[in-house]
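Q: Got a minute? One more chain.
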Amino acid sequence: MSTPRFPHPQIRDRSSRSCSVRPKIEDMTDATKTAATTTSVIKTDVTTTGLVKTDVIKTADLKAAGVPRYVIDLRCRPGGPWQRILPGVLLLAAAPPTRAQQVRAALAYVGPEAVLTGVDALREQGFPHLPLPPSIHILQPASCRKTGRGELLLERTTRLPTPVRKDGLPLAPPLRAVLDAARQESHPHRRHAVLTSAIRSGYTPDALLAELDAGSQRGAAVPRTALRKLAHFRRAAFT
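A: Always. Here it is, folded:
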């Protein structure tokens, strides 16, 4: 399955003269000289001071660290070394973002109460072989008004789970993540893989059904039918 991509600025053809010719220092304006000098050490500074542990950072955090707005704008121009991958969130690299960078960008975009759920959360908690869906699924409080964009799926909920923390990521517990993934999955084979992986890991169909009934009913009908069939087969196997 292809890795989802958030919209990011188109990288300029590096064979063009505007990208291949470096301006002479005497031709630079004072502002450009300052930007060139400042930005040469920004990434090192924010990393070594602990401001970021990855290449994903909020624009507000860079400003708070003393990086001028014009420097950020300069480096995020097409063909520049940085890019905007979500509103207010930057990737300090020119290459397309990886899935891990997209996940961290999504969490930064939503805010401190965001919780990663679905297959991305499961792969961090012992289900590494599940195929990744196109969308990254983030839970947010019902009061939050952030909207999904690109292949970022945001779901407001009054049952925001207490997250499991792993490598700095707030993850929905496996039982919740399984049902969130199953509700959103439209492909029957991938949905079946999620549910059967959970059962093989020790979750009973009855426990999965109880969690499904307690949560959002949007998209719950198909996984409910699938779980009832799995429960029937399981009971038949032990009789």
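A: The longest strand covers residues 136-141.
Q: Perfect, thanks.
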